[in-house]
Known about the structure:
Helix content: 55-70%
Number of strands: 0
Distance between the termini: 83 Å
Shape: elongated
Amino acid sequence: MPPKQWHPRHFDPVEEAVRKRTIWQSWAALPAPTRLKISLGICAVAVAGIFVSDRLEASVPASPNSTPYKTSSKS
């Protein structure tokens, strides 16, 4: 007897349910300590980015002729 071939329509019911989850449902399905660790990690990266940005801005000041946006010379 030949071995069974895998077919895209033959999904495990549990796997199919997981595939139909929204991002929010997948997030809510994670254990609370895992969600906390991920959230704290994201916050730590954000705070580090703010400090690095401030240090970089202090060490490399903008030139006096630079502008934060392009100006058009329409009259």
